[in-house]
Write a structure and sequence with these properties.
This protein is of the alpha+beta class. It contains 14 helices and five strands. The protein has a three-stranded antiparallel beta sheet with strand order 1-2-3, sandwiched between helices. It has a two-stranded antiparallel sheet with strand order 4-5. A hairpin with a 2-residue loop joins strand 2 and strand 3. The longest helix has 20 residues. It is elongated and about 75 Å long.
Length: 358
C-alpha cells in the first residue's frame, strides 16, 4: 500500500458555536480488520442532536485501487458503484470528497498533480480563526493531543501541552471518535516498529509519572512497574465517558480503540541507548545524530564499579538497578555533569546489549 497521507487529525467533542459552527458532515477512510485481513471502508462523521457520531458507508475491500479506472496519460475516473452506494446511503457528496478518499491509492504521478492543485483540502479548515478555535482546544482529550504530538514532532509531553494553545491541535475540530482513531491509525502505520513501546509510553503521559533523571530512559525503568502503569492508564481511558462521546461503549472489557495500544506496547521492547527525547518521527529528513565514541567493555565495568566476574553473575534487572542508582546521583538535574551521565548511559547500553545476547 502506498504511503497514507492524512490531511488532518481530529478529536471528538460535542458541537458548540465556538468549536464547530453549523452542521458538519465529512467522509474519511478507515482501515478495519475482517476475517484475519484488513479492509478499507468509506465512513462519515455526522451530527446527531449536537453530538458527532460516525457510520460506515461502503466496504472497499483490501485494495481500494480496483475502483480506479485510468484512461489517457493522466486521466482517471472512479467506478460508478462508488456514487451509487453513497446515494443509496442518502448522503450528499461532491467529486472532491471521493477523490480525497482515494488519493492514497492513485498512481503516484496522478497523486502529485492533485496535491499541487490542492483540491482535496477539507472545507472545515475555513470555518474559524485561531481565537475561535481555542474553546474547542480545551475540549480535546489529552490522549488525542499526546498521540498527535508524538506522531508529528517525535516528542513526548512533559507538561507543555497544557500550558498554551497549540496551532496543530486546531485540526481536532469537528471529527467523530471513530474518525480520529482512523486517521491516527493511518499515521501509526508509518512508525518504525522499534518505537511502538516508546509511542505508547509517551501517549499515555507516563513521562510525567517517573522522576526526571530516568523518565527519558524508559528502558532503565523497572519494566514491571511500567507495565502496570500502562494497563492502569488504558483502563482509566476505557472508563472515561469524555473519550467515548458519540460511541456506544459500556465500561468493561478494553475497547477495540484501546486494545491496539496494549498490543503495540506488550509486543515490543524499549530501545536502549538514546533517550526518548532523541526519537524523531516527523516525516521529514533530519540531521543524523553525531557518532558517539564507543566505550570499551573495561571502561563500562569501571563506570559501574563492577568486575567482569561480578558482571557475569548479575542479571539485567540488577544492572538496571545499578544504573538508576548512579543516574540519580550524577544526572545534570541533580548537579551532575552531562558528560558523566552520557558515559553512564553508554556503558549501560553496552552492558545491556551483552546481557540480551546471552
Amino acid at each position: 500500500m502506498s504511503k497514507i497521507e492524512s490531511e488532518a487529525l481530529g478529536g471528538v467533542f460535542p458541537l458548540s458555536p465556538q468549536s464547530c459552527p453549523g452542521e458538519v458532515i465529512s467522509f474519511y477512510l478507515k482501515r478495519i480488520r475482517q476475517r484475519g485481513a484488513y479492509h478499507f471502508m468509506i465512513s462519515e462523521t455526522y451530527t446527531d442532536r449536537g453530538v458527532l457520531k460516525s457510520r460506515d458507508l461502503m466496504d472497499l475491500g483490501p485494495d481500494p485501487s480496483i475502483y480506479v479506472e485510468y484512461f489517457d496519460p493522466r486521466g482517471f475516473a472512479f467506478q460508478s458503484v462508488i456514487e451509487e452506494n453513497l446515494k443509496m446511503a442518502g448522503v450528499e457528496f461532491c467529486p472532491d470528497d471521493i477523490e480525497r478518499i482515494f488519493k492514497p491509492f492513485l498512481r503516484p504521478d496522478i497523486r502529485r498533480i492533485i496535491e499541487n492543485f490542492d483540491r482535496s483540502r477539507r472545507s472545515r479548515s475555513k470555518i474559524a480563526c485561531n481565537h475561535e478555535l481555542c474553546p474547542g482546544q480545551r475540549m480535546v482529550h489529552i490522549f488525542d493531543a499526546r498521540r498527535l504530538y508524538y506522531l508529528r514532532f517525535g516528542r513526548f509531553d512533559s507538561g507543555e501541552l497544557g500550558l498554551k494553545h497549540w496551532k496543530f491541535l486546531n485540526v481536532f475540530l469537528c471529527k467523530s471518535r471513530d474518525e480520529i482513531e482512523s486517521d491516527l491509525d493511518l499515521m501509526e502505520q508509518q512508525l518504525p516498529p522499534g518505537e511502538y513501546a516508546a509511542y505508547v509510553y509517551a501517549s499515555l503521559g507516563l513521562t510525567l509519572l517517573f522522576p526526571r533523571h530516568i523518565r527519558d530512559y524508559p528502558s532503565a525503568i523497572d519494566r514491571d512497574n511500567v507495565d502496570r502503569r500502562v494497563l492502569s492508564e488504558l483502563c482509566k481511558i476505557n472508563s472515561d465517558a469524555d473519550f467515548f462521546i458519540g460511541v456506544q461503549h459500556e465500561n468493561g472489557s478494553l475497547h477495540e480503540y484501546l486494545k491496539k495500544y496494549a498490543w503495540l506496547y506488550f509486543d515490543s521492547e524499549f530501545r536502549t541507548g538514546p533517550s526518548l527525547a532523541d526519537f524523531r518521527f516527523t516525516g521529514r529528513p533530519v540531521n543524523p545524530a553525531p557518532v558517539r565514541p564507543i566505550i570499551s567493555l573495561q571502561d563500562a565495568f569501571s563506570i559501574f564499579e563492577i568486575s567482569a566476574e561480578q558482571f557475569s553473575r548479575i542479571g539485567g534487572r540488577e544492572l538496571t538497578s545499578i544504573f538508576r542508582r548512579k543516574a540519580k546521583k550524577i544526572h545534570p538535574d541533580t548537579g551532575g555533569e552531562h558528560e558523566d551521565f552520557l558515559r553512564l548511559s553508554q556503558a549501560y547500553e553496552q552492558l545491556m546489549e551483552i546481557k540480551k545476547r546471552k
